[in-house]
Amino acid sequence: MSNxxxxxxxxxxxxxxxxxxxxxxxxxxxxxxxxxxxxxELDRICHEYIEKEQQAIPACLGYHGFPKAxxxxxxxxVCHGIPSEGKKLKKGDIVNIDVTVIKxxxxxxxxxxxxxxxxxxxDKRLIEVTQxxxxxxxxxxxxGIRLNEIGKVIQQYVEKxxxxxxxxxxxxxxxxxxxxxxQVLHYYADDGGVVLQEGMVFTIEPMINAGKKExxxxxxxxxxxxxxxxHSAQFEHELVVTKDGCEIMTIRDEEIESGxxxxxMKNS
Length: 268
Fold this sequence. Notes:
It contains 5 helices and 15 strands. It is of the alpha+beta class. The strands form 5 sheets. Strands 1, 2, 4 and 5 form a 4-stranded antiparallel β-sheet that branches. A 3-stranded antiparallel β-sheet has the order 3-12-11, with no helix packed on it. Strands 6-10-13 form a 3-stranded antiparallel β-sheet, with helices on one face. β7 and β8 (180-184) form a beta hairpin. α1 crosses α2 and α3 runs antiparallel to α4 (148-160). The radius of gyration is 17 Å and the shape is globular.
Protein backbone atom coordinates (compact mmCIF):
# COMPACT_ATOMS: atom_id res chain seq x y z
CA MET A 1 0.00 0.00 0.00
CA SER A 2 3.04 2.27 0.15
CA ASN A 3 2.93 2.72 -3.63
CA UNK A 4 -0.36 4.63 -3.79
CA UNK A 5 0.02 7.28 -6.51
CA UNK A 6 -0.64 10.93 -5.73
CA UNK A 7 -2.09 12.39 -8.91
CA UNK A 8 -1.03 15.77 -10.28
CA UNK A 9 -3.60 18.36 -11.28
CA UNK A 10 -2.83 17.62 -14.93
CA UNK A 11 -3.58 13.93 -14.35
CA UNK A 12 -6.74 14.72 -12.40
CA UNK A 13 -8.02 16.82 -15.27
CA UNK A 14 -7.51 13.90 -17.67
CA UNK A 15 -9.28 11.62 -15.21
CA UNK A 16 -12.22 14.03 -15.01
CA UNK A 17 -12.62 13.80 -18.77
CA UNK A 18 -12.50 9.98 -18.78
CA UNK A 19 -14.89 9.79 -15.82
CA UNK A 20 -17.41 12.11 -17.48
CA UNK A 21 -17.40 9.86 -20.54
CA UNK A 22 -17.91 6.76 -18.37
CA UNK A 23 -20.85 8.33 -16.53
CA UNK A 24 -22.34 9.50 -19.83
CA UNK A 25 -22.44 5.87 -21.03
CA UNK A 26 -24.53 4.87 -17.99
CA UNK A 27 -26.95 7.70 -18.75
CA UNK A 28 -27.09 6.92 -22.47
CA UNK A 29 -27.88 3.22 -22.01
CA UNK A 30 -30.76 3.65 -19.55
CA UNK A 31 -33.61 3.91 -22.11
CA UNK A 32 -32.46 0.64 -23.70
CA UNK A 33 -32.68 -1.36 -20.46
CA UNK A 34 -36.12 -2.87 -20.94
CA UNK A 35 -37.94 -6.16 -21.26
CA UNK A 36 -36.83 -8.33 -24.19
CA UNK A 37 -33.47 -6.73 -24.91
CA UNK A 38 -30.42 -8.98 -24.59
CA UNK A 39 -27.42 -8.11 -22.49
CA UNK A 40 -25.38 -8.64 -25.65
CA GLU A 41 -27.34 -5.88 -27.38
CA LEU A 42 -26.83 -3.52 -24.43
CA ASP A 43 -23.11 -4.20 -24.58
CA ARG A 44 -23.02 -3.56 -28.32
CA ILE A 45 -24.78 -0.21 -27.90
CA CYS A 46 -22.31 0.84 -25.19
CA HIS A 47 -19.35 -0.38 -27.23
CA GLU A 48 -20.34 1.58 -30.33
CA TYR A 49 -21.11 4.69 -28.30
CA ILE A 50 -17.71 4.63 -26.57
CA GLU A 51 -15.76 4.11 -29.78
CA LYS A 52 -17.77 6.14 -32.30
CA GLU A 53 -19.34 8.94 -30.26
CA GLN A 54 -16.76 9.38 -27.53
CA GLN A 55 -13.67 8.44 -29.56
CA ALA A 56 -12.55 6.45 -26.55
CA ILE A 57 -11.67 2.85 -25.65
CA PRO A 58 -13.78 0.36 -23.64
CA ALA A 59 -11.33 -0.79 -20.97
CA CYS A 60 -12.97 -4.14 -20.20
CA LEU A 61 -12.64 -5.49 -23.74
CA GLY A 62 -9.66 -7.82 -23.77
CA TYR A 63 -8.66 -7.06 -20.17
CA HIS A 64 -7.11 -10.35 -19.00
CA GLY A 65 -9.12 -11.92 -21.81
CA PHE A 66 -12.55 -10.49 -20.90
CA PRO A 67 -14.59 -10.81 -24.12
CA LYS A 68 -16.93 -7.80 -23.99
CA ALA A 69 -16.85 -4.01 -23.64
CA UNK A 70 -18.91 -3.89 -20.43
CA UNK A 71 -19.80 -6.08 -17.47
CA UNK A 72 -23.55 -6.66 -17.16
CA UNK A 73 -24.69 -8.53 -14.05
CA UNK A 74 -28.29 -9.70 -13.52
CA UNK A 75 -30.06 -10.62 -10.30
CA UNK A 76 -27.88 -13.17 -8.46
CA UNK A 77 -24.76 -12.19 -10.46
CA VAL A 78 -22.57 -10.15 -8.14
CA CYS A 79 -20.09 -8.82 -10.71
CA HIS A 80 -18.25 -9.49 -13.99
CA GLY A 81 -21.30 -10.78 -15.84
CA ILE A 82 -20.47 -11.45 -19.50
CA PRO A 83 -23.03 -9.92 -21.90
CA SER A 84 -24.73 -12.51 -24.09
CA GLU A 85 -27.14 -12.65 -27.02
CA GLY A 86 -28.84 -15.52 -25.20
CA LYS A 87 -29.70 -13.53 -22.08
CA LYS A 88 -32.90 -11.51 -22.46
CA LEU A 89 -34.08 -9.11 -19.78
CA LYS A 90 -37.44 -9.88 -18.22
CA LYS A 91 -39.82 -8.01 -15.93
CA GLY A 92 -38.52 -7.69 -12.41
CA ASP A 93 -34.85 -8.16 -13.30
CA ILE A 94 -32.30 -5.98 -11.53
CA VAL A 95 -29.25 -5.19 -13.62
CA ASN A 96 -25.82 -3.72 -12.92
CA ILE A 97 -23.94 -2.21 -15.85
CA ASP A 98 -20.26 -1.54 -15.18
CA VAL A 99 -18.45 0.72 -17.66
CA THR A 100 -14.81 1.76 -17.77
CA VAL A 101 -13.62 4.15 -20.47
CA ILE A 102 -10.03 4.95 -21.48
CA LYS A 103 -9.46 8.44 -22.88
CA UNK A 104 -5.96 9.71 -23.63
CA UNK A 105 -4.50 6.94 -21.48
CA UNK A 106 -6.62 7.61 -18.35
CA UNK A 107 -9.45 5.51 -16.94
CA UNK A 108 -12.97 6.44 -15.87
CA UNK A 109 -14.75 3.63 -13.99
CA UNK A 110 -18.33 3.47 -12.70
CA UNK A 111 -21.45 1.34 -12.45
CA UNK A 112 -25.10 1.62 -11.47
CA UNK A 113 -28.23 -0.45 -11.04
CA UNK A 114 -31.21 -0.55 -13.40
CA UNK A 115 -34.61 -2.19 -12.97
CA UNK A 116 -36.74 -3.82 -15.66
CA UNK A 117 -40.34 -2.94 -14.87
CA UNK A 118 -41.25 -3.05 -11.19
CA UNK A 119 -38.81 -4.66 -8.74
CA UNK A 120 -39.81 -6.77 -5.76
CA UNK A 121 -39.99 -4.95 -2.43
CA UNK A 122 -36.83 -6.77 -1.32
CA ASP A 123 -34.92 -5.86 -4.49
CA LYS A 124 -36.00 -2.23 -4.28
CA ARG A 125 -34.71 -2.04 -0.72
CA LEU A 126 -31.50 -3.86 -1.68
CA ILE A 127 -30.79 -1.27 -4.37
CA GLU A 128 -31.58 1.64 -2.05
CA VAL A 129 -29.34 0.33 0.71
CA THR A 130 -26.48 -0.38 -1.70
CA GLN A 131 -26.55 3.15 -3.12
CA UNK A 132 -26.89 4.71 0.32
CA UNK A 133 -23.92 2.68 1.60
CA UNK A 134 -21.81 4.17 -1.19
CA UNK A 135 -22.98 7.69 -0.32
CA UNK A 136 -22.24 7.17 3.37
CA UNK A 137 -18.71 6.11 2.48
CA UNK A 138 -18.19 9.03 0.11
CA UNK A 139 -19.25 11.49 2.80
CA UNK A 140 -16.44 10.50 5.15
CA UNK A 141 -13.61 10.59 2.60
CA UNK A 142 -11.06 13.32 3.33
CA UNK A 143 -7.33 13.61 3.98
CA GLY A 144 -6.24 12.18 7.32
CA ILE A 145 -8.84 9.43 7.72
CA ARG A 146 -7.83 5.80 7.51
CA LEU A 147 -8.86 3.90 4.42
CA ASN A 148 -10.47 1.15 6.50
CA GLU A 149 -13.04 3.64 7.81
CA ILE A 150 -14.69 3.34 4.38
CA GLY A 151 -15.32 -0.36 4.87
CA LYS A 152 -16.43 0.19 8.44
CA VAL A 153 -19.17 2.66 7.59
CA ILE A 154 -20.43 0.49 4.70
CA GLN A 155 -20.50 -2.73 6.70
CA GLN A 156 -22.17 -1.20 9.75
CA TYR A 157 -24.96 0.36 7.70
CA VAL A 158 -25.55 -2.62 5.38
CA GLU A 159 -25.69 -5.22 8.13
CA LYS A 160 -27.97 -3.02 10.25
CA UNK A 161 -30.37 -3.04 7.28
CA UNK A 162 -30.31 -6.84 7.10
CA UNK A 163 -28.08 -7.33 4.05
CA UNK A 164 -24.50 -8.59 3.64
CA UNK A 165 -21.25 -7.27 2.15
CA UNK A 166 -19.28 -9.32 -0.38
CA UNK A 167 -15.68 -9.82 0.82
CA UNK A 168 -13.86 -11.17 -2.24
CA UNK A 169 -14.04 -8.05 -4.44
CA UNK A 170 -13.16 -4.47 -3.63
CA UNK A 171 -12.62 -0.96 -4.89
CA UNK A 172 -9.22 0.01 -6.26
CA UNK A 173 -6.83 2.74 -7.21
CA UNK A 174 -7.16 3.92 -10.79
CA UNK A 175 -5.48 6.44 -13.04
CA UNK A 176 -3.31 5.70 -16.07
CA UNK A 177 -3.83 2.02 -15.28
CA UNK A 178 -7.07 0.12 -14.64
CA UNK A 179 -6.15 -1.20 -11.19
CA UNK A 180 -3.46 -0.09 -8.73
CA UNK A 181 -3.12 0.57 -5.01
CA UNK A 182 -5.00 1.07 -2.79
CA GLN A 183 -7.39 -1.83 -2.41
CA VAL A 184 -10.61 -0.40 -0.98
CA LEU A 185 -12.41 -2.96 1.17
CA HIS A 186 -16.15 -2.59 1.72
CA TYR A 187 -16.02 -4.19 5.17
CA TYR A 188 -13.90 -3.33 8.21
CA ALA A 189 -10.44 -4.88 8.46
CA ASP A 190 -8.06 -3.92 11.27
CA ASP A 191 -5.08 -3.67 8.92
CA GLY A 192 -3.32 -0.64 10.34
CA GLY A 193 -5.09 1.46 7.78
CA VAL A 194 -3.63 3.58 5.00
CA VAL A 195 -4.09 7.29 5.75
CA LEU A 196 -5.78 9.14 2.88
CA GLN A 197 -3.95 12.03 1.24
CA GLU A 198 -5.04 14.73 -1.18
CA GLY A 199 -4.57 13.55 -4.77
CA MET A 200 -5.30 9.86 -4.20
CA VAL A 201 -7.72 8.46 -6.79
CA PHE A 202 -9.76 5.29 -6.27
CA THR A 203 -13.16 3.67 -6.64
CA ILE A 204 -15.68 2.72 -3.99
CA GLU A 205 -18.00 0.01 -5.32
CA PRO A 206 -19.82 -1.97 -2.64
CA MET A 207 -21.35 -5.30 -3.70
CA ILE A 208 -24.27 -6.04 -1.40
CA ASN A 209 -26.23 -9.30 -1.21
CA ALA A 210 -29.84 -9.75 -0.17
CA GLY A 211 -28.88 -13.04 1.47
CA LYS A 212 -25.56 -14.34 2.74
CA LYS A 213 -22.20 -12.82 1.79
CA GLU A 214 -20.68 -15.94 0.22
CA UNK A 215 -20.12 -16.03 -3.56
CA UNK A 216 -19.00 -18.54 -6.18
CA UNK A 217 -16.99 -18.11 -9.37
CA UNK A 218 -18.56 -19.76 -12.40
CA UNK A 219 -16.79 -21.99 -14.92
CA UNK A 220 -16.30 -19.14 -17.42
CA UNK A 221 -13.70 -17.73 -15.03
CA UNK A 222 -15.44 -14.35 -14.75
CA UNK A 223 -19.07 -14.49 -13.65
CA UNK A 224 -19.47 -14.26 -9.87
CA UNK A 225 -22.80 -15.31 -8.32
CA UNK A 226 -24.17 -15.39 -4.81
CA UNK A 227 -23.77 -18.85 -3.33
CA UNK A 228 -27.34 -18.90 -1.99
CA UNK A 229 -28.79 -17.49 -5.25
CA UNK A 230 -30.03 -14.35 -3.51
CA HIS A 231 -29.95 -11.14 -5.53
CA SER A 232 -27.01 -8.73 -5.42
CA ALA A 233 -26.59 -5.02 -6.16
CA GLN A 234 -23.66 -2.68 -6.75
CA PHE A 235 -22.98 1.01 -7.33
CA GLU A 236 -19.55 2.42 -8.15
CA HIS A 237 -17.99 5.87 -8.28
CA GLU A 238 -14.46 7.05 -9.00
CA LEU A 239 -13.19 9.87 -6.80
CA VAL A 240 -10.17 12.01 -6.00
CA VAL A 241 -9.37 13.01 -2.44
CA THR A 242 -9.39 16.82 -2.16
CA LYS A 243 -8.10 19.12 0.58
CA ASP A 244 -11.35 18.99 2.54
CA GLY A 245 -13.23 15.95 1.20
CA CYS A 246 -13.48 14.33 -2.21
CA GLU A 247 -14.66 15.04 -5.73
CA ILE A 248 -16.79 12.33 -7.31
CA MET A 249 -15.54 12.41 -10.87
CA THR A 250 -18.25 10.04 -12.17
CA ILE A 251 -21.16 11.90 -10.57
CA ARG A 252 -24.37 12.04 -12.63
CA ASP A 253 -26.85 14.91 -12.79
CA GLU A 254 -29.63 12.62 -11.53
CA GLU A 255 -27.70 12.23 -8.26
CA ILE A 256 -27.06 15.94 -7.83
CA GLU A 257 -30.73 16.70 -8.53
CA SER A 258 -31.77 14.17 -5.90
CA GLY A 259 -30.25 16.46 -3.26
CA UNK A 260 -28.58 13.54 -1.48
CA UNK A 261 -25.01 14.42 -2.39
CA UNK A 262 -24.98 18.18 -2.99
CA UNK A 263 -21.60 18.63 -1.34
CA UNK A 264 -19.94 16.64 -4.13
CA MET A 265 -20.88 19.01 -6.92
CA LYS A 266 -17.77 19.85 -8.90
CA ASN A 267 -16.13 23.14 -8.02
CA SER A 268 -18.49 23.56 -5.06
